[in-house]
Amino acid sequence: MRFLMTPLMAGLCAAGLLVGLAVTGADAASYPVSGRWTYNDFSGAGPARQCGAKFMEFRGDVRSDTGGGVSQYHNVSVTRTGASSFRVVDDFFNVQIRGKAIYTLRIIDQDHIELHLDQGGRTIRLRRCA
């Protein structure tokens, strides 16, 4: 049995594909920073020589955190809100809870950043690891 696709069928298939892409959304954005960032000695100049046991790591669209209750986040979106600030939405799942982390990431300089969390209003200050 031979199957021939008519122009109408091809158009419907293409339309269905476009609708499917619109529903699933675009791929996640990359974070505006990368590498390891320590919770220790935020006020020090330049990058920290030692990262320590508590740090955050940004790699592509994944953020790892050894200093909190959730160890891994996956980026959903990054939107520039100013010259050095970004609105970030991350998804997380820690076996019991699935949720979103929404925060403003502000780049202070090449070695210092702040994350201001929407929920709870907490600010996390981080220093780049050497």
Describe the structure.
The protein has 130 residues and is mainly β. It has one domain (26-128): Beta Barrel (Lipocalin). The protein has 1 helix and 8 strands, in the order αββββββββ. β3 (62-65) and β4 form a beta hairpin. The radius of gyration is 20 Å and the shape is globular.
Walk me through the topology.
Blueprint: H1 7-24, E1 35-38, E2 55-59, E3 62-65, E4 72-80, E5 85-93, E6 98-109, E7 112-117, E8 123-128
Antiparallel strand pairs: 1-2, 1-8, 2-3, 3-4, 4-5, 5-6, 6-7, 7-8
Number of domains: 1
- Using only C-alpha atoms, the radius of gyration works out to 20 Å
Quaternary form: single chain
Strand % is 35-45%
Helix content: 10-25%
CATH class, named Mainly Beta
Residue-averaged pLDDT, rounded?
84
General form: globular
Task: Please list the strands of the largest sheet in the order they lie side by side.
Answer: 1-2-3-4-5-6-7-8
Q: Which spans of ≥5 residues are poorly predicted at pLDDT below 50?
A: 8-26
Task: Determine the N-to-C terminus distance.
Answer: 65 Å
User: Strand-and-helix sequence, N→C?
Assistant: HEEEEEEEE
Number of helices: 1
Q: Which structural class matches the secondary elements?
A: mainly beta
Number of separate strands: 8
